[in-house]
Amino acid sequence: MELEKYRVLSRMARGMEKAELVFKNANVFFAHTGEFIKCDVAVAQGTILGTGSYEGEREIDLNGKYLCPGFIDSHLHLESTLVTPGELVRQAAQCGTTTFIVDPHESANVSGTDGIDYILEQTESVPANVYVMMPSCVPSTQVDDNGALLTAGKMKAYLENPRILGLGEVMDAVSVVEGSISMHEKLALFQGKVKDGHAPFLETGELNAYRLAGITTDHECVDYDYAMEECRRGMQVLIREGSAARNLEAIVKGIVEHGTDTDSFCFCTDDKHIEEIQRDGHINYNIKKAVQLGLPVEKALKMATIQAARCYGLTHLGAIAPGCQADLVVLDDLKDLKVLEVYHKGKKIEQEEKTEILPCAPKLKNTVHLLNLSEERFKLLCTGDKAHVIEMMEGQITTMDKREEVPWEENDGEKVFAPNASYQKIAVLERHKYTGKMAAGIVKGFGLQGGAIASSVSHDSHNIIVVGDNDRDMYLAVKELMRTQGGYTLVENGTVYDTLALPVMGLISDEGYETVQEKLSRMIPKAHEMGIKEGFDPFITLSFMALPVLPQVRITPRGIYLVDEDRMLKSPFDQ
Amino acid sequence: MELEKYRVLSRMARGMEKAELVFKNANVFFAHTGEFIKCDVAVAQGTILGTGSYEGEREIDLNGKYLCPGFIDSHLHLESTLVTPGELVRQAAQCGTTTFIVDPHESANVSGTDGIDYILEQTESVPANVYVMMPSCVPSTQVDDNGALLTAGKMKAYLENPRILGLGEVMDAVSVVEGSISMHEKLALFQGKVKDGHAPFLETGELNAYRLAGITTDHECVDYDYAMEECRRGMQVLIREGSAARNLEAIVKGIVEHGTDTDSFCFCTDDKHIEEIQRDGHINYNIKKAVQLGLPVEKALKMATIQAARCYGLTHLGAIAPGCQADLVVLDDLKDLKVLEVYHKGKKIEQEEKTEILPCAPKLKNTVHLLNLSEERFKLLCTGDKAHVIEMMEGQITTMDKREEVPWEENDGEKVFAPNASYQKIAVLERHKYTGKMAAGIVKGFGLQGGAIASSVSHDSHNIIVVGDNDRDMYLAVKELMRTQGGYTLVENGTVYDTLALPVMGLISDEGYETVQEKLSRMIPKAHEMGIKEGFDPFITLSFMALPVLPQVRITPRGIYLVDEDRMLKSPFDQ
């Protein structure tokens, strides 16, 4: 703090002058001690001056309402909800989350550092603190084609940026424990900083070796016992409760049952859709759910505030203490934890604030680069009797690798795969670098008939993925996404039913979340009508079909990938 | 960690190769979760590889004994115990304290950065981690003459030293809250680093302003309520239990009684003499005493380990977790907490290890620089009827300022002060810069007769202080300290009874603690024999007589200082 500023604030802190703003009669949550105490909180220039008895130029009488430090989401991806980063942050901020530790993994996989810059720029002036973890695994695998390679060398330029806190979720545990040079260059670059983990169910020795490499956190714990194994090793466990992955109940139940020391826990959402944020809340929902499961509210609040701040080295956040930023949440009570008001740097966040969509660099809206696209290329020749079929199971994103006879027909003297009600065609087209790479395969159990469904969101490389029961509609769907430069589309019998354009890196809409919700509310039911089983969210399920780390079989622009065997087949009819 | 090293350690952590050293069947204290769990601990190259089930090239079967991370003394002064830094550290390390956060405030006040370098060098290769906080208040006051001025500019050279963790105890709270430029230059220099506090009983607004300036800790809390006020404001309270100040019972009783969250507490000794370390222990004594007062042992151990490590940003210390330094303490049980073995970087600290005394730079042994010394200068003229008398009270270091008629005699036509059984003479002589400054005053209640007692240890400026009942013996005592270049001396009827030489900066003996103890065991009883009351430790009491921050009256080379009035008198007979 500048000395001149300090002198002014010090006089207010000492009561020699009125503070700019005083919250009177607040039931203040002291995060460091986990206590509620009724007193006043003095604020000036966005900073908390002190607690005690104060007079202010402006006074807000809280009449015993609860005043907490702003909540911290310790790990999330902003791109996954299809809306611009600012929109999501604004919605979540209204729920009391004033700090976001984001990992722009998806943006980086499409646009490299331009994608990271996009997230930084778009969140520069939101009413919240947005910090960025440098994506560590871009590309996330060697068997896929993504848009960028993010080396330690490229990361270097970001080291001095105060909004870059460390290295993003290190998914490639094998490279870590086996000591890969490129991985350890990144780890070394962020020495002394936080390195987020991603380590579901490592065996004890592997987990020790992973932690030995300096990994600090994990948000992939799905049960209490494993979470404790990580905590004991000095990792901070970020308890996740988002749209897809919901691990809070399992972990918090264990904590409550065992009376566990909660120092090593924080909260995160990882991915949470805007409509669910509006409906249920954000980190305040995690707190509320934990309290309902029996966790004392003081402990839940510490997880959501000071413990996350400490984990990420944010000494100016997470507490109502002198020198901390005045990020504050007013709660109605400690049971429903209803958020009445939220302040960021001492300024109230207006609930009605209009969603502002900031423009982005033109090159980020030009990322779908297909080569040699033709209907003919969707043809799948039957070069054997049996094919590897990707069998999908309702309610899951894992798949089974089945070898089966599949329907076929004669076509100009060729034996080609002929989709029917049970079997459809799936294709992935490289879209970043005009390589024209494309592979086709066979899915079972998805259920689409009389058309095609396509998306430019397909983890983690985000190529174009399409499923259909005829080549014409699949071709049309891909052409439609080329036109919109990314999005979700649904084609029915030769006609585009509807398209949600996601032109920003092929991941994000820039028309506002109202448009996104309106489109999805039409397209998703329609996709089910067209046969996609109710156990799938059509587009989200589609987005995982190309992720070559999930068992048992995936498809990439290079072919059918047998995950367990680490083997790529050019054609599903290959052995 | 170098990649090559990591690869080797990772293979051991994963059990692919035997670890160098494995502690088998240990009851391991997991500091992060506060649990004891029976398992093995693997170590190599001084680093903990992991916990679980391991085989080692070397195995130590602990048979269920308790294994804890090495303890951390979060605040102490190494100079105050009169022995070389290495001696004290070795003794304390044998009690399980493997990390010391030291503030070389005394050395810096005598020798500036040379004094700090001395502490750094002397503790470079001790079997423990010694970190240094940069003394913030050198000189500690403007009304005294010390040996050096330590500005932010001079501190800058130390910023990159990994053993310098931050700014040492900031005693001058007034300069902090009023925004003094020189103080805030120092605070700014250590931005983002720990800034130790020294803030006994600040009023709420002052405490807020003090914390607002970024002060991180305090070790001066003497009661629970004030400790909590500091904790709530985000300060870490270092609970002190040393030779002089003993605050543990008051604070821990409060914690136990209120079931207080203990996250914000650590332990320190501040000053603890080597004979007491040998008798009672060091930080292990703090733990034991806290447990006896009812604190769960897990909480006490967390205070002594992970919480201190976290407070000072020492991510490689304070836990038995992969990547942490293998500083380990084997405890016999959890009640008496008897320390059986201590390891530093995986190497056992031998209990019998010979005290090694390292040489120091010659200039540090030449710091007693008196000018114009003569017996004549000790004469105190009675220039008025009444004098300000420094009244001392047994068992206390505070004094009373009394205006009294005092005994006198005619001497060559002058009326001079004539000490008797009630009133003695006290004098302070500037000893750093050959200024020849000297002042004399009158003490009551100390009790010395038939001689003089003198010391070069006198907080915080460490000038020569002497008390006696005749000028000849006082002069002789000071001459003796000039000869030894510092120390404690006792003169009886014209003869030096004995002297403990403290030639290193006039603060430290380099003859080993056995010599120090042997000398003190003769000199202290002798001083009492000569009339010094039993309620005083003769030399320690003497060392505080010149500290011009303690009420009500002190003496400095500039004169008699009335602390409450902030007024300096050339002569005690001045109004």
From TrEMBL, chains A, B:
One of its GO terms (molecular function) is adenine deaminase activity. Residues 401-565 form the Adenine deaminase C-terminal domain. It comes from the Bacteria. Its EC number is 3.5.4.2. InterPro entries: Adenine_deam (IPR006679), Adenine_deam_C (IPR026912), Amidohydro-rel (IPR006680), Metal-dep_hydrolase_composite (IPR011059), Metal_Hydrolase (IPR032466). Its cofactor is Mn(2+). One of its GO terms (biological process) is adenine catabolic process. Keywords: Hydrolase, Manganese. Residues 66-347 form the Amidohydrolase-related domain. Belongs to the metallo-dependent hydrolases superfamily. Adenine deaminase family. This is Adenine deaminase. The gene is ade.
